[in-house]
Amino acid sequence: MSEIEPFHEADDDAPEWAGDPKHMGFLEHLEELRWSLLKPIGAFTIAFVASMIFIVDVKDILLAPLEANYSHLSEAERMVVFGGLTTYNVTGVFIAMLLIGVIIGLMVASPFFIYYLGRFLAPALTVREKRILVPGSLSVLFLFLLGCTFGYYILLPRTITAVIWFNQLLGFQMLWTTSNYFGFLTFTILGLGIAFQMPLAIIVLVTIGVVTPEQLRQYRRYIVLSIVILAAILTPPEPITQLALAGPLWILYELSIIASVFLKKKHDAKAEKLESEWDD
């Protein structure tokens, strides 16, 4: 066999930046973004379908914070206080199933979304920014899951306990629909997952120079007051539940100040070193 390879003409029409992700055209970026989004959407779809297959087991898990408040009551007492979730229309059960699938799908798909979004942004970042990307993405994921866990195991049961106590105090019978309960569950769990991103957002603002650690300390009282007001809006008018939400957010704010001070000192030391080397 001949070892002479066939001649291939060079493609004169190919742009010089072909193959370089930093110089891709607009349509190429759109195509890359499409594939980056399809994978998290695929993970969401798989999780959604799996939750529909095991809908009874998933429903029992999501109802655990509610059921825990009735474990000490007899069947007769439960019927007086709360007979169970109800549906008022034909499609009520399907709305509840949809909300269950959305909760599970978003929690499963969030790591994939963070990972592939980071991969999409990586070519446009500097070496220093790429070093921050991986720990930053892991921090986003950790804080999101921490917020969801806090909402499910701590805030949600306390909120339901407070609501039941006030209903019993006033002698009201609770008639909760499936859409009410699972909608509230979705708002609480996913909302706290997003709210727990506050330290990362503050660190980013300090890193890019929008705020300084000194300003964070200076306006601490206003931020804490805002956290308390937010907790009062998101929870029933009951101090224990409000503190259960405001306390962790306040702690996260203080931790973000400490982290921003450390990062600023590190950045200033590096800048001073580069300046001294430039002077030499």
Rounded average pLDDT: 76
Which spans have pLDDT < 50 for at least 5 consecutive residues? 1-19
Helices and strands: which structural class?
Answer: mainly alpha
User: Into which percentage range does the β-strand content fall?
Assistant: under 5%
Number of strands: 0
Task: For the record, give the distance between the C-alpha atoms at the N and C termini, rounded to a whole number.
Answer: 64 Å
Radius of gyration: 26 Å
Helix content: over 70%
SSE succession = HHHHHHHHHH
Count of structural domains: 2
Q: Treating each run of at least 4 consecutive H or I residues as one helix, how many helices? A: 10
Overall outline: flat
Largest sheet properties: none
List keywords for this structure.
single chain; 0% strand; 280 residues; 2 domains; mainly alpha; 76% helix
Tell me about this structure.
It is a single chain. The chain folds into 2 domains: 25-194, no CATH class; 197-271, no CATH class. Helix 1 (26-53) packs antiparallel against helix 4 (92-121) and helix 4 (92-121) packs antiparallel against helix 5. The relative contact order is 0.08. The chain has helices at 26-53, 55-67, 75-81, 92-121, 127-170, 178-195, 198-207, 213-218, 220-234, 239-279. The protein contains 10 helices and no strands. Helices cover 76% and strands 0% of the residues. It is mainly α and 280 residues long.
